[in-house]
Amino acid sequence: MRRLCEIRMEVRTKNKIEYRSITLPNGRRVNYVHQGVGLPVVMVHGLAASLHDWDDLMPEVAAAGYAGYALDLLGHGESEKPERAHEYSVENAYADFAAWIDSLHIKAPMVLVGHSLGGGLSMLYARRNPDRVKALVIVNPFYSMGQLPPILQKMFRHQLINTTLIERTPYRLFRLFVDVTSFSGYIGNRETHVLPEHIRYQTALDYKRASSGIYNIPRTLHHLDMDPSRITQPTLLLWGGRDQTLAPASFPKLAGMLPNLVKTHHFPICGHVPHQCHPADFNPHVMEFLSKI
C-alpha cells in the first residue's frame, strides 16, 4: 500500500511565503516554498544550488497572479541527503522531483522554469508528462554531457567515492571560489562582480550545505533519453553568454532542436546564472512569456 505524504509546514508571514517540508512515499524529505495563487509556476534550480535561486523571481510571479513553487532537489539545501554515493543520480533526482509535484495535487497544467540541471529535469518531465506541462522556461539547461569542458567530462566518467575533501572544504574557500569566478573585467561595467553580494553569499552557502554526493549526478545524465525534438510545449530559452560551466554554443544548438521554441535571448555579460546575474533584465523575459501563454 502506498504510504501517504506527511506534510509539516512553517509559514513566514512577512513575505507571504509558505516554507514546507514533505516526506515522499519513498521516505525521502523534500523542502520547498510556495507563494501566490493562480496558474502554477514550478521553479527548479541547478547543481549545488537551492530554492533560493529564485528569490528574485518568485515575488514577481506571485504578484502577477501565479502560484509559484520552488524546491530543494535531492541532496541540496534542506532536502534529504542520502549517505550512499550511488543514490545520487539524475533518475533519483527526477523521481523525487516528480513525486513532489504529485504531492502538490496541482490540477492545471503547469509552467516549468528550470536552470542548468533543473532545466534538464524540466525538459525530461515535460517529455514524459506532456499533458501536465503547459510551457517551459529553460535557463542555461544541462541536457548533454557534451556541454561540459573536457576535464569535467573526464572526471564524471567514474563515480566519485572519496569526497572527503569536498565535505571538509570551509565556507570561506567556497566563497573565494564564487568571488573569483564572478569577478567582471567587462569594459564599461561599473560593478566589480556580475553577481551581487547577497547572491555570492547564498551561492557559497549552498555549495557548503549540499551533500558531496550530488557531484555524482551529472555522470548519469547519458543514461536518459533527453531528445529535445520530442518536447512539444511552448518554450522560452535563456542563457548567459559567458557560461564557463556549460558551452554557450550548446544553447543555440538546442534552440534548433526544439519544435515549439517561442523565443530565445542571451545575456552577454552574464555567465552560468543569468537569473541571478541581473534579475532586473532577466525577469521581464519570463513575465512576458507567462503573460502570452
What's this model, at a glance?
The chain has helices at residues 57-63, 90-103, 117-128, 150-155, 164-168, 171-181, 197-209, 250-255, 274-277, 279-292; strands at 6-12, 17-23, 29-35, 39-44, 66-71, 110-115, 133-139, 235-240, 261-267. It has 293 residues and is an alpha/beta fold.
What does this structure look like?
By secondary structure, the protein is an alpha/beta fold. It has one domain: Rossmann fold, CATH 3.40.50.1820. Helix content is 31%, strand content 20%. The protein has ten helices and nine strands. The protein has a nine-stranded mixed sheet with strand order 1-2-3-5-4-6-7-8-9, sandwiched between helices. α6 crosses α7. The longest helix is centred in the first third of the chain and has 14 residues. It is globular. The N terminus is likely disordered.
Whole-Å distance between the termini? 39 Å
Strand content: 15-25%
If you compute it from the alpha carbons, what radius of gyration comes out, rounded to the nearest whole angstrom? Answer: 18 Å
- Top-tier CATH class: Alpha Beta
The CATH superfamily turns out to be Alpha/Beta hydrolase fold, catalytic domain
Q: Sum up the overall morphology in one term.
A: globular
What fraction, in percent, of the residue positions are helical?
Answer: 25-40%
Question: What is the string of helix and strand elements?
Answer: EEEEHEHEHEHHHHEHEHH
Low-confidence stretches: 1-14
Secondary structure tally, helices: 10
Provide the domain count: 1
Total DSSP E strands: 9
Broad structural category: alpha/beta
In the CATH hierarchy, the architecture is 3-Layer(aba) Sandwich
**Strands ordered across the widest β-sheet:** 1-2-3-5-4-6-7-8-9
Using the coordinates shown, work out and report the CATH topology: Rossmann fold
Largest sheet: 9 strands, mixed
Mean pLDDT: 88
